[in-house]
Amino acid sequence: MERKRAVWGCAAIAATCIGTALLSAASDPLADLKSAESSIESRNFSAAASAADSLVKRLPRLADYAAWISASAQFGLTNYPAVEQALEPVFKQSPASPLTAKAYLLEAQAALLKGVPAEAVELLRKNYAALTQPQGDLLLAQAFAASGDQVSAAIYYQHDYYGYPTSSEAATAGAELARLRTSMGANYPPSLPNAMLARALKLLDAGQIKKARQELEALIPQLGGADRDLAKVGLGVADYDAEETAAAHRYLTSLSSLAPEADAERLYYVLQCARRLNNQEEVDQTLDQLAHLYPASEWRLKALMAAANRYLTSNQMDAYEPLYRACYETFPKAPEAANCHWRVAWGHYLRRRPDAADLLRADLRLFPSSESASAAMYFLGRLAEDAHDPGAARAYYAEIDREYPNQYYATLARDQMAKVGPAPPSPQVIEFLRNISFSKRSRVEDFKPGPAAAARIERAKLLQQAGLNDWADQELRFGAKAGEQPYLLALQLASFSSAKPDQALHYIKAYAGGYLYVPLDSAPRQFWTFAFPLPYRTEVESFSKQNGLDPFLMAALIRQESEFNPKAVSKTGARGLAQIQPATGRELSRRLKVTAYSAAGLFQPGLNLQLGTYYLKSLLGQVGGREDAALAAYDAGLSRVRAWLTWGDFREPAEFIESIPFTETRGYVQGILRNADIYRRLYGANKGASPAR
C-alpha cells in the first residue's frame, strides 16, 4: 500500500511538472519579459536568468532586450564568463539597439571581474566612439590599471577628472589619481596645464564658485604664461559671479602685463563691473580700449553686445546703433551679427527713415537664415503697401506664408494678403527673393514608416504591451536621434503619452524640432493636436467667457506658460497651468472672493484657470484692451510695458511687439499670438487649412 502511494505521489509530481512546463510554454513571452526585468530590479538574478534564457528565441523582435536581461542576470550571479555570449544579440540587432553602449560597458566590467582586463581594454578602445561618457573613460582607466598599465590608467582618469568635473565619476577619478600620483612618483604623467585650467573654469561655469576659486588659487603658482594669466582673470570672474562686484572691479583693474586673450577677457569683465556700478564713463572707456587693443577679440564682441543691449533697454538708439554696427561689420560671421544688423534695420524702420527698405533688404541678403527674416519680409510688404504697390506686398507676404507657415509673421501676412486683394505678385520682388539663400527646410514630412522606423515602432509597441514603458520610449527616442523619420517617431512617442498632454507636447518639440515649418495640411491631425493640445477645454472656455477672453488666446498662453502641465513650477516659483505666483494668486483670490486660498491650490486646474483668466482680463483693462501689451505685461510686468508703449508711434501691434527689448518677452508674445492662430485653425468653427487626416 505504501509503495502504491509512493508511485501515485511520483505520478502526481510528474503531472505537476509537465503541467508547469506546458503552462510555461504557453505563457505570454511579453509578460515573462516584464517579469524578468522586474526580477533584475529586485535583484532576484536566478529568476531573471531562468526566464531570460528562453526569451531570446521566444521574442526574436526583442532579442536584444531579452539578452540584456540575461547578461545582467549572469553578471548579478557573478557568472562573468557567460556575460559576453549573452550579449551577442544586442550587437547583432538591426536597426541598432539602444542598449549597445550599455552592453559594451557591461561586457567590459565582466571581463575585468573575471580577471582578463586586456579583453576589457580591447573592447572599450575598439568601440570608444560608441561609449557613454564619462562612464566609458572611467571603466577604461580601471581596465588599464588592472592590466598594469598605470600610465594609461592615469591618462584616462585625468579625462574624467578634468573633463567632467561636476560628475560622480570625477570624484572617483580624483581619488584614484591621488593614489597613482603617490605610487608612481616621477613616472606619473603630468596633467596638462590647459586641462587643469579648463577644469577650474568649468566649475566656475557650473556655479561652483567657491571650489573654482580654490582651484584657481592653487593653480596659479603651477601655471605659466597665458594659462597663468587666464587663471588670474578667472579669480576676478569668480568674484563677479558671486555678486562681489566692487571686489571684482578692484582686483581686475589691478592686473597688468597680461597675455592678449587674458587681458581682453579682463577688460570685458571690467566693463561688466562698471555697468553694474552704473559707471557709464568707464564702460565707454573700456569699449574704446578693447577696440584699440583687441579689435577682433570675441571679448570685444561680447562687450559690444552687453553695452548695446543696455542702451536698447532704455531706447537710446543713437547710443546703441554704432555698437550694433560695429558688431556686424567687424564680426560678420558671428552668430550675434544677425541680431545686431536687425536692431539697426528695425530702428530705422520704426523711425520712418528713408533707408529702412534698403536695410531690410540687406538684412535678408546678409542673414537669410536669421529669425528676423520673416519680420524683414513682412515690413517690406508694409512699406510696399505704403507705396501703393500691392503686387510687391503680395510677393513678400506669399513668401512668408510659404517659408514660415506657422510663424507669427505668417499669420499677419495672410491677413494682409486678404487686404491687398488679388494683385499679381511683383516679378521684381519674386526675382529678389529667388536670389536669397533661405535655409532649406522640409515642407512635407513622410509619415509612412520606412523599414527602420517601422521596426522601431513595432518594437516599441511590444515593449509597451509588456508594460516596459520606459524601454518603449527609449526605443523611439534612440531612433529619432538617429534620424529614422524623427517626426513619425515623435508622433508615436506622443501617442504613448496621450494621457499626459504636456509630455506628448514635449516629445513633439524635442524630436520634431522644425515642426512649425511644416504646413498644417502636410501632417496628420493627431500630430498637430499633440503639438497644440487642448485639455481642460471646458474650463478654459467657461472661464474665458466669464472674463470676455478669446478661449484660443488663453489656450495659447497656457501652452506657452506651462505646456498644460498642471503641476508646473517655474524658476521663480510661478505655479500651475497659467503660472500664477503665490502672492499674485492670493491677491486675485481676494478680489474674486475665493475662500481658503493656498499656494497649493494653484496646482488645481480649475482654480488656476479662474485666476489666470481674471488676471489676463485685468491686464487688458489696464492697457486699453491691447492683447499684445497685456501679454507682454503677463510676462515682463505692467510697469515695463507702460514704458515700452511710449517708445514710438506704433501703427500696428507688430511694431510694438518687435520693439520689445527683451528677447524672451518678444518671443513670448509672438509665440502666444502664433499659438492662438493655430488653435483657431485646429479647433475653431472655421478651421481654414485643415491638417491631413
Topology at a glance:
Layout: H1 2-26, H2 29-41, H3 45-58, H4 63-76, H5 81-86, H6 88-92, H7 100-113, H8 117-126, H9 135-146, H10 150-163, H11 168-184, H12 193-205, H13 209-219, H14 225-241, H15 245-254, H16 260-276, H17 280-293, H18 298-313, H19 317-330, H20 337-350, H21 356-366, H22 373-386, H23 390-403, H24 408-420, H25 427-434, H26 451-465, H27 469-481, H28 486-496, H29 501-511, H30 525-531, H31 537-546, H32 551-562, H33 582-592, H34 605-622, H35 627-636, H36 638-644, H37 653-659, H38 663-683
User: How much is the average pLDDT?
Assistant: 94
Query: Approximately how much helix is present in the residues?
Result: 55-70%
Strand content: under 5%
Radius of gyration, Cα only, in angstroms?
A: 32 Å
Distance between the termini: 76 Å
